[in-house]
Write a structure and sequence with these properties.
Blueprint (H helix, E strand, L loop, with lengths): L2 H7 L13 H12 L11 E6 H17 L4 H6 L4 H11 L2 E8 L5 H21 L3 E5 L6 H7 L5 E10 L13 H4 L4
Antiparallel strand pairs: 1-2, 2-4, 3-4
Helix pairs in contact: 1-6, 2-6, 3-5
The chain binds flavin mononucleotide.
Flavin mononucleotide binds next to helix 5 and strand 3.
Amino acid sequence: MELKETIKKRRSIRKFKNTDISKEIIEDLIECARIAPSAKNRQNWKFLIVKENTKNEIADIMLEKEKKSKVSLERKIYNANSSVKATANIMKEAPILILVLKQYENNWTIGDSLSIGGAIEHICLRATDLGLGSLWIRDIVYTQKEIAELVGHKDMELISAISIGYPNENPRQRPRKKLNEILEWL
Ligand SMILES: Cc1cc2nc3c(=O)[nH]c(=O)nc-3n(C[C@H](O)[C@H](O)[C@H](O)COP(=O)(O)O)c2cc1C
């Protein structure tokens, strides 16, 4: 697929078929993340593939906390109250969840986080290119410590996650600002 066509075709996919994805395809996605640029070429990321029971346990951690928790400050800031439950259920439906972790290092938080965003977008675009659907997930952050512990990486910070699977929907492009709203020539 032409790069621009892939960029235009990518959507957040929230309905997935119950079809497994081969190891070769998953390695291909992570290979695309591996060659992404990173601040100072630190490559401060780790990708963990979770499936089946572990994946569903992660979603259950999110659902449990969502049920119990009062409205936290972070939720108020990001207005994320209602999406955790929906996201957790999508994670259950998708056959693969990629957890994206980084070392705890205060000085580099922004550089590393930006780099991780770039690597995730490589994964999402390659997924589209291969006929797969992806969902970039931030809703795991409220339970990042619990999830990192569950997967044996208490020493690392869970930054983001990506659900991957064969799409079972074909959504239209979501609204975007016009070019003249975001582009300014001086
Ligand atoms: C950093 C980031 C975090 C996101 N987190 C979530 C999430 O937790 N749950 C979800 O359903 N969608 C999530 N999304 C998807 C966005 O809602 C989506 O990209 C946006 O609505 C535009 O739709 P599109 O991706 O189909 O173009 C996230 C996207 C980004 C870039």
